[in-house]
Amino acid sequence: MIENPSTPPQTLTGRCMCGAVSYKISAPPVAVGLCHCDRCRPQAGSAFSTVMFVQRDAFEINGETAVFEDVGASGMKALRRYCPQCGSPLMTEADVTPTLFFVKAGGLDQTDWLRPTFEMFVSRRMPWVSALPGAAQFDGNPTL
Asked: Where is the CENP-V/GFA domain (predicted)?
């Protein structure tokens, strides 16, 4: 679908702010983008959330996580995992994407390769946030 102009490392690693939860991703992300939905914004504590779509079978998490059971824009269940000690958002398991996780890019150990190539839920973008130059624009979830 959307090609990332930079190549990620073979294995990606990340962690929560306090280090109690860590993760490893053993395959390149399917896509990297910005989400402006009404659910990701408050979870990120920002105007948008930077997310990586990764294959579920390539994601390994270590440490205790807590889950907030939410309903996504699709109307389907979305489990939002976070660290119960420091509150860092880690990833979302959305029923609408049964083979993918949405991993919050803010926890990555290495981000020099990271280039979002799309934005989703752009009709909900804060009026003071400009579109990312060159990024594909979607009013909902992108088609992968």
From this structure: 12-114
Q: What's the token pair of residue 98?
A: 């049964």
Domain count, the chain: 1
CB environment 9-32: b (16+ within 10 A), e (fewer): eeebebbbeeebbbbebeebbbbb
Q: What is the pLDDT of residue 107?
A: 96
Residue 55 within any structural domain of the chain: yes
Q: What is the pLDDT of residues 51-89, one digit of tens each?
A: 999 999 999 999 999 999 999 888 899 999 999 999 999
Domain of 68: which CATH number? 2.170.150.70
